[in-house]
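Teaching note: in complex prediction, the entire set of molecules is handled at once rather than each chain in isolation. The prompt given to students was simply: 'Predict the structure of this complex.' The entities are:
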Amino acid sequence: MSFNAKKTALCVGLCFLGMIGTQQAMAATEAVASVQQAKQATGNVSDSQGPLIGATITEKGTSNGTVTDFDGNFTLNVKPGATLVVSYVGYETQEVKAGTGLRVIMKEDGHLVNEVVVIGYGTQRREAVTGSVANIGGEKLNQIAASNAAQALQGRVAGVLMTQTSSKPGAEMQIRIRGQRSLSASNDPLIVLDGIPFMGQLSDINPTDIKSMDILKDASATAIYGSRGANGVIIITTYKGDQGAPAKVSYNGYVSFKKVFHKYPMMDGPTFTKFRQYAGKYQNSLDESDDTNTDWQDLYYQTGVSHNHDVSVAGGTNGGSYSFGAGYYHDESVVPTEGYDRVSVRGNFDQKVGEYLRFGLSTNNSYRKNQGVNNMYNVLSTTPLASPYDENGNLKRYNTLPADDQVVVTKETVERDKEVWLSENKGIGSYNTLFGELKCPWVEGLSYRINIGLNFRSSKQGGFTGTGINNKDANAVNSGSIYENQTRNWAVENLLTYDRAFGKHNINIVGMYSAEQTTYEQTGASAQDIPADYFQYYALDKATGQANLTGYNYWQSGLISWMGRAMYSYDNKYMLSLALRSDASSRLAKGHQWHTYPAVSAGWNIRRENFMEDLDWIDNLKLRVGFGETSNQSINPYSTLGGLAIRNYNFGNGTNYKAGYYVNTLPNPELGWEYSKTWNFGLDFSLFSGRLSGSFEYYIQKTNDILLDVSLPSTSGVDSYTGNIGNTENKGWELTLNGIIIDNKNGWNWEAGINLYQNRNKLTKLTGALDEDGKPAPDKANRWFVGYPIDVIYDYEYDGLWNESDVYEVTLPDGTKTTNFAILEPGGNLGMIKVKYNDDVLDANGVPTRQIGDDDRRVMSMEPDLIGGFNSTVGYKNLDLTIIGAFQIGGKLISAIHSANGYLNMLTGRRNNIDVDYWTEDNTDAKYPRPGGIQSGDNPKYGTTLGYFDAGYLKVRAITLGYNFDGIKAIKDFGISRLRLYATIQNPFVLFSPFNNESGLDPETNSWATENTAVSFSEYAGKHRMPIVGYNTPSTRNFIFGLNVTF
Amino acid sequence: MKTKNIKYIIAAGLVCCGLTTTMTSCNDVLDEQPRSQFDPTFFNTKAGIEGGLTSLYAHLRYFYGNGYWLNACETGTDEYTYAQSADGNFKDADLSGVGSMTPSNSIAGGCWGTAFANINTANGIIENGAAAGIDAALLAEAYFFRAFDYFLLVQYYGGVPLDLGAGELKFNTSTVRTSVRNTVAEVYEKCIFPDLEKALADLPENPRLTGTVTKNVARLYLSKAYLTYAWWLENPGGIPTYPECSRNSSEAQNYFQKALQTAQAAISNPGPYALQPTFYDVNVATNDRNSEIMLYADHDEDEKFGNGGVGYGWGSGGSPENFAYWMETWNYTEMIAKDPSGNNINPVQREAVQGLGRPWTRMAPVADAFMDGGVWEDAVKAIDSRYDATFTLSYFTNWDKSGGAAAYVVGANGSQIKPGESYFSWVPQSEDSQINYTGADGKLGFGEMPGHDDFVVAVNHISRKKYPCNWKIGIYRTDNAGGLGSKVNGGSPRPWNIAKFSEFYLIAAEAAVKLGNNAEAVKMVNVLRARAGKQTYCVNARAPFVADHSAEMLAATPATITIDFILDERSREFWGEGYRWFDLVRTQKWAERATTYHIAGSGYTDKDLEKFTRDIPKGYYLRPIPQGQLDGMMMSTEEKAAYQNPAYRN
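The expected output is the structure of the full assembly:
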């Protein structure tokens, strides 16, 4: 049996397609119901948004019925005195007496009993779900105009934390579902797009194409995705047409004006002058003068104008449906030249062929371009005492500072240079899913389905710095670089499903075999001295200076899986789900590649028990318990093999260029799966006819054998190896509440929702030596501490500043007199940062026995106490007002702006400084140390402690005011079935944020710890990859005007 | 028709199912083949091992040319102290109460991180080399570098582990996270001496490639290792060692003798090496890789190979860049002059030439060295060409190279200073009385002196703000194209000189002094002193200048050579190049020679010397084991504490 999985899997697919070819289309029209001539009932069906197309009208007790037309109208011949039953999926069924000119207004189903939830390899009614699955519809999602679905999802679902990692246009967000479990393997959730695991980035998907997002949070729900689902699963379903429905054309568009939320709080001229003089380290350079006061940020920022347009067509055929759409999104930053463009094209169709066969295709494609040179550090750090213009009013090339030359960067210079100074990234993503489904003619409920995913993503990153650009020397040689990479992925899933109801018994059994493989390739080159600046990075081969091939990379990884799942429910009262999955990953060592894990969950619909019958105020009450195991293999391919590092060298001037190698990673032939066991307890409820609904969940997840990239001590001679060491635990609870406060009273509606959650992450075990108390010794080098969360701050703890009152005289054992300060902080000065030190430093007489040192570093948790989001919509007739917000209580925020790493708070007067409350003899209770005092590196000693803030905040993310032009004849006559205009303010304000209170800045993170900071926070990179506030493109407040129209 | 279709469907479905079941054994998807990265098995091949050898050379760049390593080797000695822009790294090193020596500063970091990885690479080459068909001469390079790294470690930290996890001197493939330190004696006797002796036996006379090691390079390190070990055995200053072990001081003479013999063997059989005609020739960038230089961390203007992939556009001050000279360069760009129309301009700007370059003002020479009784006292300046070819004493104007149109600037005594002329100079202490410190430039407190068109300050006013720069290690580029050079802020593309043939004479002289052979010591130092008297070019006039003060130099050699004189001579020969801390620690003279020093303040115009006192306890003759090592070991707190050198334990 030497078939390889790819070939085999494709064979399966080809067979299937061949089969389709032989199949003739068969007429599926059913016999037309006979009509008894009697009386004609006519009317119109609508909901709060406008006419409902395709609502079903039946004569009660008969099979006689019809559906509403394009305008929501219907005509039906009925017996005299008949009752009409009006139904529509997702709405409460109504009964009305037959008549003419009826007006039926359908109410959305508050009980949500008919809500369908996508659970992976199938759907389930919300009522029958036993795992932890959250759902958010496209309409809710798009209440925030966002370029990225993750942004729109921020704060909307309990247990799902979206963290901004860059404030640049088109940036991605970090998604964490119920915290992180892995130390060095990936903690990113699996995204499934239209049924197939998605290998692109969320920004490749146009959020307005999304019909719904279902988030699988616990292991009993994710187990069927096996190792891919270890960090939770987000299932994205794009809009589909409705079978048999007439074509509908929709257009959504908006324009957005972006203003800087708050400028970075740099010193102005007079403040800086005073500060520099006080620091006493630098004097004005020739380009600086105390009477100049330049606000470089004002000269740099612009109002960004963004706009978005989407057109889609959806409809149905006989036995099928289709939907096509195209979108264009143009985003412009407040930083000149920086922007993002995306053109997306989406299509899907789904067609029944005969009685037993169905096939379909879903395709999502996008072209994207990021561009812009971000020069924030230059803008922020340039002295306010220098002018961008010389005495003749011409722009200067650069300003000389006491110890630096800084190139003049303003909006004017950046736009002047935009052809010769650029950085752009262009890419194409194409994500395609084909499926075929075959029903077994003899066994009712048995079907076979094949899903084939073919995906491709490429990007081409080009950069160019023209002659003399961003250099003091006007003749500095130009340079360009280019990197191209592409990711190819295929996936084949073979599924057998048996789905059948026997009386009160419902059974659903799925079996699956799947294989997938991903290949990544990258090539690149850089060159200097390119003959003409207009070549940009397109002709690096013409360069006459140094040219290098660089950044080459290749990897391939594969996964093979078997899965079986059985779901059973009795009378919708008792539900049970069992799943078993086996995964094998190429990334792990041979002999350790396979792992099998089970999942079980059960649900009890208490409300359906007889003893609950009298409790009318309870609509629904369901208890869920789940247990499951998942695993994680998200280490880099080839991690088991070890590696060599390269050191290039020249033997002589221009001769004997050679590459050197040394072992920097040891192989680990034992590397196996990391796996988690999760318990989940959930309670869903709906009360008072749906006026209050919600759910509460508690979970505990234990992860064992976590995959670690372990740093070795220098004396090993090798940097690190990847191993399975240690355990972690996540515990948490989630509460979601939705209420209808005013239910259509005199035209008023008011709904509100809130979600709250807390996750507690803990490292519970690390293999290694024990300390003298028999406890696991802290792994300081990797910064892993048993009993603490995975990500912690391990640093000194700020404890104010040293003042006269803190210093006292002490007598040493040998009789000499000194002070506690002199012993604790040799070389220190008053007004320097005081850090907490261990009590054992002081002897019985309060005399310090040593200076403050490494042993005084503290482990500090960064976890928030509570995270949540809220939303509320107030409507009056056609007008609605929606507020969406998010909040966090506690936690730690790392600000590079304030920390030593940012070089914007050096407190020396060398470059501009953020405007902080610094210590002077007259201001001894300041927060920031004395300028010009003791330093560590270029920054104040313990300067990193200045960068930690309480991360709590409450942020109103968007306020939207909308108006629906329903029932306006002029609009209807124009063929418009729905028209909505709205205006939104995004990021209007932030409350309760200590960081915002001090700096005025947005407390949301905007960078990875390796970016937008002068010196990378190495401690929050790599294994502890954390977002921080750096000097990225400033956060903005956006004013959006939009239009949705459907024909 | 309909039934027929159904049959097709069933058939196809069955085929599908059948194929599906075959897939259970398909494991291609699960196989891994890296294509863009090496796995360690490459290290067993000939190409891999040769690459390993290259990496042994490349690792030199990770401390030689690194400014923080230079700081660790110079600041706090009788040559350097911290300068105006010094951060904690430099103040910590000074030991004068402005900082402190701790396991987490960069001085502790030292060479620890780089050396062990390199030792492991050498272990791997030695272990796998023969099987891969590598000949003994190549393997000898690995023996050399293993000893080289251990020699550095043992001088810097004391005893260090010979077992990295897989056994003594074995290639480590274990992931063990514990470590045990050997004693100093074990490191010398089990590794340094046998490895260097093996290298000496197997290495070629002439280098395999430009700059690779030879028999005489091995002799240089062997003689220095004997010398250093001899001092350690003798231990005249009672300096403690760690881990503690007994030492037999009676064996010291034997090792001094070996040091002398080994050095003499090289001098009498120099191979491709020779002293340059003048000291200037040794150090001028255009003559890099000359016959006197035996080992260097090479660089050239190629960014990928010559600078390890780091660009030259903007240096960040990290290895593998050669950026050490920034530290010893004060911010000369702050000079201000008046042009003919009375406008202020900066007459001397950053330029990528030897003696200028990028200023970081982190390390300043102590003033004592330039004053009466110092190694560069006026009597020395007068005859020893090494003074001129060690320091940038005159700063030549270059505003024209950045497009400045002024024809001249106003100099001292109302003179006109044109482009390319000296705007400011350091003058000897003896001329101080003639200087009128008017602060004429308006900023830096310069003075005027009769007969000088440029502004002047006498060397007895050296301050933390302004001081003579180290010219020898300065930047040099060939692509300035008539301008100041757009890559002046990058690292220097020059090789960093590590070992010179001249050192044989000083090693031999030092050993001779210890053996009581004064005649031999005099003979040896005089070879270098005679050369130092010869001059063909004056760096600080930027012009040829022929002089021969050899006879005066020899006349000035004291009749009895002492260790202090050897140390003075080493200072004059290797000033500011990273030898000093090792020299003072080896000879146990650190505290004696460096406890007090004088320098003026950090202000722009500060000129009055202040006295500073350092605290140099005996325990500081070993540097702290880096905190990262202690943090990285999975050992008990007690074991970790015991791993640290005693002076740095809490």
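Point out the following to students. Chain B has a mean pLDDT of 93. Residues 28 and 187 of chain B are 49 Å apart (CA to CA).
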